[in-house]
Amino acid sequence: RKIALYLGRRDFVDHLDSVDVVDGVIKVDPSDLNGRKVFVYLACAFRYGSDELDVIGLSFRRDIWVQRVQVYPPTGESINKTPMQESLLKKAGEQGYPFSFQMPTNLPCSVSLQPGPNDAGKACGVDFEVKGYIANEADNADEVIEKKDTCRLMIRKIQFAPANNKAGPKADITKQFMMSDKPVHLEASLEKEIYYHGETITVKVKINNETTKVVKKIKVSVEQLTNVVLYSSDTYVKAVCSEEFGETVNASSTLEKSFQITPLLANNKEKRGLSVDGRLKDEDTHLASTTLSQGEKEMQGIIVSYKVKVNLMVAGGG
């Protein structure tokens, strides 16, 4: 091969105020370049589906952010090599050239939309790709770059939950019924703001039923909200966990009780379009993590959040 990419890791962490530098090395054999140059780019893209469909002239990737650097011939810019690059250069030998990219803080994380049971090809979603290529110009749409003159590695941009776990949210509603002068009051609260993958969520429910009707059932669910921001902004809502509890609250009485539910990807494998954390190969993943942002800059791509809902089924009475 004329070029080969070396990266010390595939996961890069977004700390909200900064993102880990993507630092790598590309090995270049200059003997066969015929005056062409070697470039490396890092691209964050939204993938609509399978590459195989590209033959009909439709592009199924939309770049959200791209940065390119020329690595050969060297431009003379001095690069402060990271310890990781020093060790990669030992592997690559004299033909190794370091490169690094600094991603901005307003890019989405690696997320896939779960394909349906009969869907073929690659999943839709946001991915990050480091690609080395041999070309005359860095970015000329008319220049055909052959597959043998490229090498690529997928990486992931990930976030970790912040350490400070604040008190959980609380919401309440008062509902008046026709033919009834008194309401049902419902309050729901969570004990904390952050839950980890696979963790049980305890929802504390308080009901004050002042009506003559009976609360027959309580339904507690968790919904995933996926906001796809590309040309426009579209939000998809999917229940990832929903349970009904046969608790009754008679007329003019109250209930205070905690209910537990556990949202798991394992129970949602058939749901098409559900957001899951990005993966590099066919390893196991889980429901996509909530997208954390500092909120100043508009983010493109896929933004994920979750909502807990409590519904009361009310029946009968005058």
From TrEMBL:
InterPro entries: Arrestin (IPR000698), Arrestin-like_C (IPR014752), Arrestin-like_N (IPR011021), Arrestin_C-like (IPR011022), Arrestin_CS (IPR017864), Arrestin_N (IPR014753), Ig_E-set (IPR014756). GO terms for molecular function: G protein-coupled receptor binding. It holds the Pfam family Arrestin_N. GO terms for biological process: G protein-coupled receptor internalization; nervous system development; signal transduction; visual perception. Signal peptide: none annotated. Gene3D superfamilies: 2.60.40.640, 2.60.40.840. Keywords: Sensory transduction, Vision. Residues 180-317 form the Arrestin C-terminal-like domain. PANTHER family: ARRESTIN (PTHR11792), ARRESTIN-C (PTHR11792:SF19). May play a role in an as yet undefined retina-specific signal transduction. Could bind to photoactivated-phosphorylated red/green opsins. Belongs to the arrestin family. This is Arrestin-C.
